[in-house]
């Protein structure tokens, strides 16, 4: 375990809600509004933490456990992520598999919590979430396999420290395809437009938001915070790939990474402002498309 | 086959009540069914009590080609053979008659209450419920689909957004909707029961608040009815100001709807801008009369506010700015592929079904039906200044959105022309007393569609029965049909594309 590896989790824990704030600000500016301050997500979290929680009589321990498990799982995932050539807190061969599994655990508990309420809306949301994640996870694994094959390492720290400008010059198309697939994964996993609409109030159309309808107070704060961290996690995967600045100086790498995260938030905001949500039937098509891109990338690496 | 003769009136014309032929039940059915199958529209069908034990049913059909409204009546006691099988447009009306007067339409395929109140004739109940049994809104039987993988989703009456209460039951198979049943009645206030005996000072306020977003439409329709009963004429300037207000109401609501449609699919630019521009149109109503929803403007005999020269200039300036903004915001919808892919082929209602159900307004025009009171049954300034009918023929969400956009453009042009050429005259003549024993049918094309008010006076010149048909009353069934074989996740979008009124239906 390396202390410099603490940078990623610490930065994420501090700055993750800011990403949401930036996305919302960009969307507001596109829509011709001022929008809330970029620090609004922090205020929301503080507000929720100060409230009491209400539990429906039909729920059991699973429902109360889900936010805690979700938050813990995403923090573990954070500990596995490097920043540029700065090694992750936990790095070992095969950590990419653990990464996929802890996020799977998070989803599993969110879905259980949703089913636990017995509400038909939450059941529908859970069904959609599971259906889509079954398509998203292969894309993530294929992308990681491509990168692992290319770098010859099966640890995030190994993979990401090997991605440099030189590699981009040499294997540009492959990396570009993986980036595209990861962008789709990032949007889908974080329930952003065009897959889901984080701002909608229409319970019949929601995916992720509908699963957490019954949570309130600190539980909801945990869920929102975990969602912000999850956005950070997938953002870090994408930014680490697309900002191949490996100076060897930890501070420089970290600064470049943070700039990359800010740019990503802006890009997501722009995407959400420019297009409408897909019809739910079309979402699998898009996810399968991303899978196809990832497969082509893998084939290119394997040849 | 020789048709049974009915009383024929023009829109806003009145006649003596005894001119309405009272037919036998069989003749009445034939008269209505023949006409509806021959292309006329069932505009209203309602009951009123006559004497101790009898209920008079009055049917109103509108003939699009000739611009005539025909009225006939019959008398029934406890039951009569239902029309719904031969004339599906009567479905909702017959349920209403059963609920209000305890008259049972025999053979009605789905006889349920629609507003959940006690019968207006004590001792008569179509469902033979005991007098002391509590009647809770929407506590009734629902259509059920059975099967292992079928599941039921109940939505409402409390919704996530700030909208009115209504209950929706979906029978789903996975994400697919087999059937949607809509049950309303939470907003029932008893307006139709409050009006008879009047008009009083309150009546106009009831009309303005029948459906909060259709204040001008219902108030104009009411005024047209009482003016006809009183035999008075409206000054030219007042007629023009009424039409301007009606079109402004259409502009505000259509713009708001297009914005809300964009909001439902997460398309922010149009959503935010249209929300603001809707406010601009509402403020233009406020410029005329001080109320954003046009309350207090339309009064029997004319209008209560005039548009003076200074405000007229300001009005035209604001209209120009709003036209520019709304064009920019709305055209973005049609040029964005992701928006079009959501709108097209979602929530389709076939032309045939629209005719069968008797849809009105935007929902009907989106199915290619040329139904527009402003052209077919014009009154006021619409007799002289014509607005082309805007139609589309795909019957989907896109068609309903696009018809709104066409109407926005045409209303903008109409208002611009009318404000420039306001005739110089008084704005209001006070209304005299209503003539006794007369009947009138008044139709107005509100922004949602055809608004119909039928008024009858008693022998003392007071209102004896006042029937209100909001366009939503015709169209809720259209929404239910549009959802068949759709994705349940598209329901909010379909619902918004109809944007029907709950309180206009519940009265």
What features would you describe in this structure?
The complex is a heterodimer of chains A (303) and B (507). Chain A has one domain. In chain A, 71% of the residues lie in helices and 0% in strands. Chain A has helices at residues 7-30, 40-49, 61-79, 95-116, 120-151, 156-162, 165-189, 208-211, 217-242, 250-274, 283-302. Chain B has 507 residues and is α+β, with helices and mostly antiparallel strands. Chain B has 3 domains: 7-106, NADH:ubiquinone oxidoreductase Nqo5 subunit (Beta Polymerase, domain 2); 150-183, no CATH class; 191-506, Orthogonal Bundle (Cytochrome-c3 Hydrogenase, chain B), CATH 1.10.645. Chain B has helices spanning 25-37, 91-101, 191-194, 203-208, 215-230, 236-264, 268-289, 309-334, 337-343, 351-357, 361-365, 373-376, 397-420, 471-482, 491-498, 502-506; strands spanning 7-9, 14-16, 22-23, 41-50, 54-63, 68-76, 79-81, 104-106, 150-155, 167-173, 176-183, 298-299, 302-303, 438-445, 450-457, 463-469. In chain B, strands 1, 3, 4, 5 and 6 form a 5-stranded mixed sheet that branches. In chain B, strand 15 (450-457) and strand 16 (463-469) form a beta hairpin. Chain B is globular, with a radius of gyration of 22 Å. Chains A and B meet through helix 5 and helix 10 of A and strand 9, helix 7, helix 9 and helix 15 of B.
């Amino acid at each position: 375990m390396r202390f410099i590896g603490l940078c990623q989790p610490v930065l994420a824990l501090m700055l993750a809600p800011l990403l949401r704030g930036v996305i919302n600000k960009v969307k507001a500016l596109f829509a011709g509004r001022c929008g809330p301050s970029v620090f609004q997500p922090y205020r929301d979290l503080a507000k929720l933490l100060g409230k009491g929680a209400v539990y429906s009589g039909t729920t059991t321990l699973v429902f109360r456990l889900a936010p805690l498990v979700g938050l813990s799982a995403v923090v573990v995932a954070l500990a596995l992520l490097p920043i540029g050539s700065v090694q992750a807190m936990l790095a070992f061969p095969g950590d990419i598999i653990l990464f996929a599994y802890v996020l799977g655990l998070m989803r599993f508990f969110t879905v259980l919590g949703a089913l636990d309420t017995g509400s038909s809306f939450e059941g529908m949301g859970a069904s959609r979430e599971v259906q889509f994640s079954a398509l998203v996870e292969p894309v993530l694994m294929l992308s990681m396999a491509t990168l692992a094959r290319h770098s010859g390492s099966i640890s995030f720290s190994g993979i990401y420290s090997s991605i440099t400008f030189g590699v981009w010059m040499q294997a540009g198309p492959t990396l570009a395809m993986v980036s595209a697939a990861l962008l789709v994964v990032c949007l889908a996993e974080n329930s952003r437009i065009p897959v889901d609409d984080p701002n909608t109030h229409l319970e019949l159309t929601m995916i992720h938001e509908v699963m957490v309808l019954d949570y309130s107070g600190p539980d909801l704060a945990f869920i929102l915070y975990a969602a912000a961290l999850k956005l950070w996690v997938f953002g870090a995967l994408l930014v680490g790939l697309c900002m191949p600045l490996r100076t060897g100086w930890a501070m420089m790498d970290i600064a470049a990474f943070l700039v990359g995260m800010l740019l990503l938030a802006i890009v997501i905001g722009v995407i959400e402002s420019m297009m409408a949500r897909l019809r739910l039937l079309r979402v699998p098509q898009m996810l399968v498309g991303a899978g196809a891109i990832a497969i082509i990338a893998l084939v290119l690496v394997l040849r | 086959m020789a048709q049974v003769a009915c009383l024929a009136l023009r829109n806003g014309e009145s006649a003596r009540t005894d001119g309405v032929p009272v037919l036998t039940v069989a003749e009445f059915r034939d008269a209505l069914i023949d006409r509806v199958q021959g292309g006329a529209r069932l505009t209203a069908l309602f009951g009123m009590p006559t004497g101790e034990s009898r209920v008079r049913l009055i049917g109103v059909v509108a003939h699009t080609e000739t611009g005539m409204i025909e009225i006939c009546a019959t008398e029934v006691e406890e039951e009569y053979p239902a029309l719904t099988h031969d004339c599906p447009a009567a479905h909702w009306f017959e349920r209403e008659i059963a609920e209000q007067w305890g008259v049972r339409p025999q053979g009605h395929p789905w006889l349920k209450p629609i507003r959940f109140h006690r019968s207006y004739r004590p001792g008569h109940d179509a469902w033979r419920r005991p007098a002391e049994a509590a009647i809770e809104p929407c506590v009734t039987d629902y259509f059920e689909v059975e099967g292992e993988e079928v599941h039921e989703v109940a939505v409402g009456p409390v919704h996530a957004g700030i909208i009115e209460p209504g209950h929706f039951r979906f029978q789903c198979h996975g994400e697919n909707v087999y059937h949607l049943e809509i049950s309303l009645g939470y907003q029932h206030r008893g307006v139709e029961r409050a009006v008879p005996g009047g008009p009083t000072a309150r009546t106009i306020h009831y009309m303005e608040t029948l459906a909060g977003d259709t204040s001008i439409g219902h108030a104009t329709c009411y005024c047209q009815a009482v003016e006809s009963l009183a035999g008075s004429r409206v000054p030219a300037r007042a007629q023009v100001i009424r039409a301007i207000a009606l079109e402004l109401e259409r502009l505000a609501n259509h713009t708001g709807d297009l914005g809300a449609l964009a909001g439902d699919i997460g398309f922010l630019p149009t959503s935010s801008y249209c929300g603001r521009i809707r406010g601009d149109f509402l403020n233009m109503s406020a410029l005329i009369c001080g109320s954003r929803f046009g309350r207090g403007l339309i009064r029997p005999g004319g209008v209560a506010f005039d548009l003076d020269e200074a405000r007229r200039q300001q009005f035209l300036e604001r209209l120009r700015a709003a036209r520019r903004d709304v064009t920019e915001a709305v055209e973005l919808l049609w040029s964005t592929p992701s928006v079009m892919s959501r709108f097209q082929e979602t929530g389709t209602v076939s032309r045939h079904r629209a005719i069968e159900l008797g849809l009105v307004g935007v929902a009907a025009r989106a199915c290619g039906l040329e139904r527009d009171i402003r052209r077919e049954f014009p009154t006021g300034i619409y007799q002289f200044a014509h607005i082309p009918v805007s139609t589309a023929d795909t019957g989907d969400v896109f068609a309903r959105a696009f018809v709104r956009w066409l109407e926005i453009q045409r209303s903008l042009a109409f208002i611009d022309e009318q404000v420039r050429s306001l005739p110089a005259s008084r704005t209001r003549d006070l209304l005299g007393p209503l003539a006794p024993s007369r009947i009138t049918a008044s139709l107005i094309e509100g922004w949602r569609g055809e608004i119909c008010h039928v008024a009858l006076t008693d022998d003392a010149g007071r209102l004896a029965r006042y029937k209100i048909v909001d366009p939503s009353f015709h169209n809720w069934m259209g929404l239910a049909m549009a959802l068949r074989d759709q994705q349940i996740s598209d329901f909010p979008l379909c619902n918004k594309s109809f944007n029907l009124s709950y309180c206009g239906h519940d009265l």
